[in-house]
Amino acid sequence: EPRKRSWVSRVATNDDLQQWKNLLVPEESALRYLRHLCQQFQVPITLHRAEYQLDGAKLTFHYTTEAEHPEFKAILKDSFREFRCRIWLNNCQPKPGQKGDVLDLTTDPIPVVVNNIPKLC
User: Fold this and answer.
1) Maximum Cα–Cα distance for the chain, whole Å?
2) Is 33 exposed, middle or buried (0-12, 13-18, 19+ CB in 10 A)?
3) Is 47 helix (H, G, I), strand (E, B) or coil?
């Protein structure tokens, strides 16, 4: 069962939207970098999206996998070294018994502020 989302504390401002737009290019670059690491270390996941938290403190990669529990240690270590922020890997289409937050991969993320932290959902 997917975890419940936090409540939204306010609608994103124009400044939040501009900050979000400025993160789109770094997100694409981060996605390419992690795809390269997954090939290099033979991690059996398919990466779909990378999302920076608007303050840049966290970078979330959304993936799917057939493996029960892929080994992420090597890619997490290198990713942290490259991006210097918290790295989060989310199984966006978890099977029964797997952890992860379900993500609709057909829509674009929307910037909001949750618990006074700007983020995308």
Assistant:
1) 41
2) middle
3) strand
Which residue, chain included where needed, has tokens 């829509």?
Answer: 107
H runs (alpha helix) in 41-120: 73-83
Q: How many residues does the chain have?
A: 121
- Structure confidence at residue 74 (pLDDT): 87
Q: What is the pLDDT of residues 61-118, one digit of tens each?
A: 999 888 888 899 989 999 999 999 999 999 888 777 777 777 766 665 545 455 555 5
Comparing C-alpha atoms, which of 90, 31, 27 is closest to residue 62? 90
Position 74, amino acid:
A
> What one-letter code names the amino acid at 77?
K
Burial class (CB in 10 A: 0-12, 13-18, 19+), 64: middle
Question: Using CA atoms, how far apart are residues 85 and 97, in angstroms rounded to an integer?
Answer: 29
pTM confidence score: 0.74
